[in-house]
Design a protein that fits this description.
This protein is α/β, with parallel strands linked by helices and 440 residues long. It folds into two domains: 159 residues, Aspartate Aminotransferase, domain 1; 262 residues, Aspartate Aminotransferase, domain 2 (3-Layer(aba) Sandwich). It has eleven helices and 15 strands. The strands form three sheets. The chain has a seven-stranded mixed sheet, with helices on both faces. A four-stranded mixed sheet has the order 1-2-3-13. Strands 11-12-15-14 form a four-stranded antiparallel sheet. The two termini are 28 Å apart. The chain binds pyridoxal-5'-phosphate.
Length: 440
């Protein structure tokens, strides 16, 4: 019989309450926590809080734990590595694990193996490296990014992001020379454009309006995009969007930076989400799922592109030996079956969530690829008015029933479990979710 969440105390329990009080005293209040989950240990898709309550985790540490909590093979590889070499700094020294991982990433990332990798510690750093490389190489200043995008919180990444005003308010001035254009969202087409005309309308707008006025294409270094928007609400663009964007980019020798920080590493049922759209980007950025929870960012580009001179960019911790070994093991596990599992059980999850969409008037849309699925909550299907309050209530109520979910965008519930999740575990999660929706 499938395991179920087990709540032994009211939530938060007594130990959690003590820690929450201390957290309030000592931890920056800028984080975005909504419900009080104080987690002590985890195993697969199950986590246990400090009071011994068991939760079913459909959030995977914000789409990070590709192999689940504490996968035994990752733990073993990390323990062995920690006993051998913890840090050396790839900036000034060489070590095998970083080189091995770079070779593996060059092999599996879209396009020929003829690539190089810059290692950092997080998604935002991976994107900073991509932006710097694009400017350095093209000697062009402008980036074209998309509304709804989230690329990180350091100044460069924050400047190309456009998902929430709070990320920017009172932090200006940001990095200049960034132009935002709409992301083609089939459920919420910009300016009422018919969904089947989204791609052509958008590309016409970029080429004949943006390029002719504020961003001459000869000054544009790169387009930067998420193949499936993450923090913007798990939005999948139309199938023809990226191929046509690539044509436009090639016409003006503009680079394509593919931010796979959330959608990459098997989550969408392909190793890289852009593979669903059949184009080869110039630069790919990775973090989150790459090392099963160990901090690592990677920026991957063709060798001819990543040929900046010594001293131009570096990182003390980036490509840490323990993180590299965790990443090598993670990729091995992904190739041994987890990518395929994401495709298969992700398809099952989407099918079941689509059934719930038929049942509940306030589910406006269910969309996604593999195990990256969004459930958009609205006032009703006709008006499609976003219902952020109800979304937040659903996510919070699920917690009180032992199910960990997260929001994405203003009014979407995100499902991004570990890629080890089984259909049986998804059934348990879906049953709780339906129960929450019925009683809300
Ligand atoms: C698509 C995308 N890019 C970049 C980032 C930033 O990653 P990090 O928080 O590791 O800096 C995120 C984080 O959510 C993301 O979803």
């Amino acid at each position: 019989m499938a395991l179920k969440p087990e709540l032994k105390t009211s939530l938060p329990g007594p130990r959690a309450k003590e820690l929450l009080k201390k957290d309030e005293d000592f931890i920056s209040p800028s984080y975005t926590r909504s419900y009080p989950a104080v987690i002590e240990k985890g195993n697969g898709v199950w986590v246990y809080d400090v009071d011994g309550n068991r939760f079913l985790d459909m959030a995977a540490g914000i789409a990070v734990l590709t192999t689940g909590h504490c996968h035994p093979e990752v733990v073993k590889a990390v323990q062995e590595q920690a006993a051998k070499l913890i840090h050396m700094s790839g900036t000034d020294f060489y070590y095998p694990y970083q080189i091995e991982l770079a070779e593996k990433l060059a092999e599996i990332a879209p396009g020929s193996k003829n690539k190089r990798v810059f290692f950092s510690n997080s998604g935002t750093e991976a994107n900073e490296a991509a932006l710097k490389l694009a400017r350095y190489k093209t000697r062009r200043p402008i980036f074209v990014a998309f509304f709804g995008a989230f690329h990180g919180r350091t100044f460069g990444s924050m400047s190309i992001s456009a998902s929430k005003a709070i990320h920017r308010r009172h932090f200006s001035p940001l990095v200049p020379q960034v132009v935002h254009v709409p992301y083609p969202n089939p459920y919420r087409p910009f300016f009422g454009v018919a969904p089947e005309k989204l791609t052509d309308t958008l590309l016409d707008y970029i080429e004949n309006y943006v390029f002719n006025t504020i961003a001459p294409p000869e000054d544009v270094a790169a387009f930067i995009f998420e193949p499936v928007q993450g923090e913007g609400g798990y939005v999948v663009p139309p199938q023809d969007f990226f191929p046509k964007l690539k044509n436009l980019a090639e016409k003006f020798e503009i680079l394509l930076i593919d931010d796979e920080v959330q959608a990459g590493m098997g989550r969408t049922g392909r190793m890289f989400a852009i593979e669903h759209f059949d184009i080869i980007p110039d630069i790919v950025t990775l973090a989150k799922g790459i090392a099963s929870g160990f901090p690592l960012g990677a920026t991957i580009a063709k060798k001819s592109l990543m040929d900046w001179e010594s001293g131009t960019h570096a990182s003390t911790f980036g490509g840490n030996p323990v993180s590299c070994v965790a990443a090598l093991k993670t990729i091995e596990l992904l190739e041994r079956g987890l990518v395929e599992n994401a495709r298969v059980v992700g398809g099952y999850l989407k099918e079941k969530l689509l059934e719930l969409k038929e049942e509940f008037e306030f589910i406006g849309d269910v969309r996604g690829l593999g195990l990256m699925i969004g459930v958009e909550i609205v006032k009703d299907k006709t008006s499609k008015t976003p219902d952020a309050k109800l979304r937040n209530k659903i996510v919070d109520e699920a917690f009180y029933k032992g199910l960990l979910l997260l929001g994405a965008g203003p009014n979407t519930v995100r499902w991004c479990p570990a890629l080890v999740v089984t259909k049986e575990e998804l059934d348990v999660a879906l049953e709780i979710f339906r129960d929450v929706l019925k009683k809300i």
